[in-house]
Amino acid sequence: TKKMDDDPSNDDSEFLGPEERLSRSFICKEKGNDMFKEGNSDKALLWWKSGLNLLQELNEANTGDFQVQNLIVVLNSNLAMVYAKIHDYGQAIEAADAAISIDESKHKSGEQLDPAVLKRYVKALYRRGFARWKVGQLQAAATDLTNVLKLDSSVAGAKRSLREIKKLLAARKEAEKAKFTSGFFDAKGLYEDKEVDKQRREEEKRVEAATKRRQEEEKRRLDAVRAEEESAARKKRWEDDCVGRMVKGDQVESYDEWDAAQRIVEEADRKSREAAEAAEVRKTEGQS
After folding, report:
1. In the prediction, which pLDDT does 5 show?
2. Where a domain ends, among 132, 160, 178?
3. Are 103 and 131 in the same domain?
4. Domain membership of residue 204 as a residue range
5. Is the sign of the CA dihedral 27, 28, 30, 35 positive or negative?
6. What is the average per-residue pLDDT within 75-85?
7. CB atoms near residue 17 (< 10 Å)
8. Is position 139 within any domain?
9. Are residues 28 and 34 in contact, defined by beta-carbon separation less than 8 angstroms?
10. Where is the signal peptide (predicted)?
11. Is position 161 within any domain?
12. In the predicted structure, residue 47 carries a pLDDT above the cut 90
């Protein structure tokens, strides 16, 4: 089992009770915060995702109440922040949705939110609005940021973003109006509409690049995990072989000696299988 102090992996998480899961998830949150402060966004993402994985079963069982819900909201909101920072706005929206969903039903029902709950709700709502803006979902972004300012008028970032979005919406509206009333765009309307399209295309490219980068990083991580698991499995087979040899009174090989011999056998088996497959193909082709 890996130590959480060194790595966000939680190989023994399935054996943990609710209190230990909650405790470890909080540690993951703090570790992620430290990584983010140090400028290591990738490592922060890993810690926060690990924290969410620990809480998944607790949330499904509806245990832990406020503490569990608060951590889920905070961790998802943090993910939304970092995804937006690296221009992966699609993931940012998804994470913000997960954070918002916990408190939104309470808010819409008219329930008075606790100040701490209200603060986390506003933060997640702002981050979703910002990400929606960057992928060209202007009306949805404007709705989010308007709601942010209704709940907390002091959020300066929301004010600035909303002003820019309203300019883009006005430009889009004027361009559409000119198109349907006169059959052509005037120079100003055409320019503004092109600016909107240009911004959308640039953001789409950044989102695509960020998504590709995340996928490549995930593939490298999975390849490393598989390599580590394969190495552990080979060493287990060597240990079993050593035990068998000692029982028989035979000489025990070092791991390097055993591994070299095994790889020779495995390579021979591979070539034999390939030859058999090639022969089968030739046989099939000869019959057709």
Report:
1. 57
2. 178
3. yes
4. 188-250
5. positive
6. 93
7. 9
8. yes
9. no
10. none
11. yes
12. yes
106 and 64 within one domain: yes
Which tens digit of pLDDT belongs to each residue from 115-143? 888 898 999 999 999 999 999 899 999 99
- The contacts of residue 122 (CB under 8 Å, 6+ apart) are 148, 151, 152, 155
b/e 136-154 (16+ beta carbons within 10 angstroms → b) = bbbebbbebbebbeebbee
Q: Are residues 100 and 75 in the same domain?
A: yes
Tell me the DSSP string of the chain.
---TTT-S--TTGGG--HHHHHHHHHHHHHHHHHHHHTT-HHHHHHHHHHHHHHHHHHHHTT-SHHHHHHHHHHHHHHHHHHHHHTT-HHHHHHHHHHHHHHHHHHHHTTPPPPHHHHHHHHHHHHHHHHHHHHTT-HHHHHHHHHHHHHH-TT-HHHHHHHHHHHHHHHHHHHHHHHHHHHSS--HHHHHHHHHHHHHHHHHHHHHHHHHHHHHHHHHHHHHHHHHHHHHHHHHHHHHHHHHHHHHHTPPPPPHHHHHHHHHHHHHHHHHHHHHHHHHHHHHHHHH-
Note whether residue 51 is domain-resident: no
Longest dimension (CA), the chain: 97
In 3D, which of 106, 154, 105, 98 has the Cα closest to residue 124?
98
**Cα 108 to Cα 115: distance, rounded to the nearest angstrom:** 16
**pLDDT tens digits along 244-271:** 888 888 888 888 888 999 899 989 988 9
Q: Which amino acid is at 42?
A: D
Residue 11 clears pLDDT 60, i.e. is over it: no
Q: Evaluate whether residue 183 is within a structural domain.
A: no
Per the structure, the count of domains in the chain is 3
Instruction: Assess whether 200 and 270 both reside in one domain.
Output: no
Instruction: List the Cα angle 227/232/237 in 5-degree steps.
Output: 125
